[in-house]
Amino acid sequence: MKIHVNEQVLELAENINIEQLLVHLDKPLIGSAVAVNQDIISRSHWADTILNEGDNISLFQAIAGG
Amino acid sequence: MLNDDELLRYSRHLLLEDVGETGQQALKNAKVLIIGMGGLGSPASLYLAAAGVGHIVLNDFDHIEVSNLQRQISYQSDDIGEAKVEVAKRKLQQINPEIKVRSINKAMPEIQLTMELTMADLVLDCTDNMASRQLINKSCVDAKVPLIVGAAIRFEGQLMFFDHSETDSPCYHCLFPGSEEQTLNCSNSGIIGPVVGTIGTLQALEAIKYFVGLPSGIKNKLKLFDGKSLDWQTFTINKDPKCTVCGQH
Ligand SMILES: [Zn+2]
Description:
The complex is a heterodimer.
Chain A: E1 2-5, E2 8-11, H1 18-24, E3 32-36, E4 39-41, E5 56-61
Chain B: H1 4-9, H2 11-14, H3 20-29, E1 31-35, H4 41-51, E2 55-59, H5 84-95, E3 100-104, H6 110-117, E4 122-125, H7 130-143, E5 147-153, E6 156-162, H8 172-175, H9 186-189, H10 193-212, E7 221-226, E8 232-236
Parallel strand pairs in B: 1-2, 1-4, 2-3, 4-5
Antiparallel strand pairs in B: 5-6, 6-7, 7-8
Helix pairs in contact in B: 4-5, 4-10, 6-7
Bound molecules: zinc ion (ZN).
């Protein structure tokens, strides 16, 4: 399966959920926000949101500066 | 009613169909609470004062340091050591003597923030840390006061608008739960002045639009700004039914 993560192509052997993706990418689960096709997925739905072929994933961090 | 001085001062607003005399009067009646008077709060407050927002409350507990001056454009070198809110208040009154400005020179505890929210039509979160952001969000959800959140670090900016007068509105906590998080701030990561200035300026723009009754293009959206490419990304923020702040509880 091919998906895009922050505009980079990523090949995955099988459909995984968001939580598994973050672990796969070695990203922190804390302080991260995830959007699938421009829709932000609440953290409580990371485990039950399965990624599909062609999905555009955006990963970014909370920033607090001002 | 606008007086003769105001008709002249705001003449470029009055030319705009979307503002006009009705919109200018709405700005004059408006009450905004700006929390955090650093790189976001500086441009946001300068523009709102210039625009004629009639009641501006400034809150911060910091004193001006030389390292602030690279981006916090309300302040100058001979202000170092003074309280930010006092200098900023003076500056805003110099720009526009027609408006009322009040300063709160302390870190507000929740009870005081709640009291201030009963007198505010809109809040701008211009703070520099996660704990304040979570407290402001929770208080605005509870008080049903709309909140415009800005944040910036390095070359990146974030902007969002939540209308908490609507019960189905998502909140900041739906997006970023947890105040204990190690988050990036200006003192540990650095910041480019015009990036934080862009976000603060857009908080002012959204506030003016809100007061004159124009719809916001960013309601329940997160705008991400990349100061290197100048690209903007837009994401929809969904309400988390399990959110401990705005969910059913
Ligand atoms: Zn929420």
